[in-house]
Amino acid sequence: MLKKIDHFGVAVHGIEKALGVYRDGLGLEVGSVEEVPEEGVRVAFLPIGETRLELLEPTNESSPIARFLKKRGEGLHHVCFQVDELEKRIPDLRSRGLELLPGYPREGAEGERVAFFHPRSTGGVLIELREKGGGGSA
Ligand code: ZN
Fold first, then answer.
1. Is the residue at 138 inside a domain?
2. In terms of residue numbers, what domain contains 60?
3. CATH number of the domain residue 20 falls in
4. Is residue 137 one of the residues assigned to a domain?
5. Distance from the CA of 127 to the center of ligand 1, in angstroms?
6. How far is the CA of 54 from the centre of ligand 1 (A)?
7. From CA 15, how far away is CA 56, in angstroms rounded?
């Protein structure tokens, strides 16, 4: 059911400062930057071969990323797998003990449907599933 690692997410205090490492240091290019108001974040995607790095910067204090930074500091935040037919997979995943975060699935970055599963149900990793191409038809 998992197609590939779509991206991995890194929580940062500021995208500009983080680009000093990932763009200027490691030589990655910035593919896109956008704000996702529903999540209280600004995100930058940096392609790496078949996958991407997502930098997440909080845009307000109640953002989940702001809370993460306060608790754990900057660092690896989540891993995102690409799936087909996200909505159809969810009941099955829940029946296998994966705990869907409240409010998901919903539209995330790049207008695609996303769902997050709580790290306490996945062995400590926040897992994002994301539908390929939107609408499940692509
Ligand atoms: Zn993500």
1. no
2. 2-131
3. 3.10.180.10
4. no
5. 9
6. 6
7. 7
Identify each DSSP E strand in 12-126 by its residue range.
32-36, 41-48, 51-58, 75-83, 106-107, 113-117
Decide if 70 is inside a domain. Answer: yes
* Domains identified in the chain, total number: 1
Mean pLDDT (whole number) for 92-116: 93
| Residue 88: burial class (beta carbons within 10 Å; 0-12, 13-18, 19+) | exposed
pLDDT in tens, 77-97: 999 999 999 999 999 999 999
How many Å lie between the centroid of ligand 1 and the Cα of residue 24?
22
Q: Report if residue 81 sits inside a domain.
A: yes
Q: Are the C-beta atoms of residues 10 and 53 closer than 8 Å to each other?
A: yes
For tokens 């609408």, the residue is: 135
| pTM for this entry | 0.91
CA of 117 to the centre of ligand 1 (A): 12
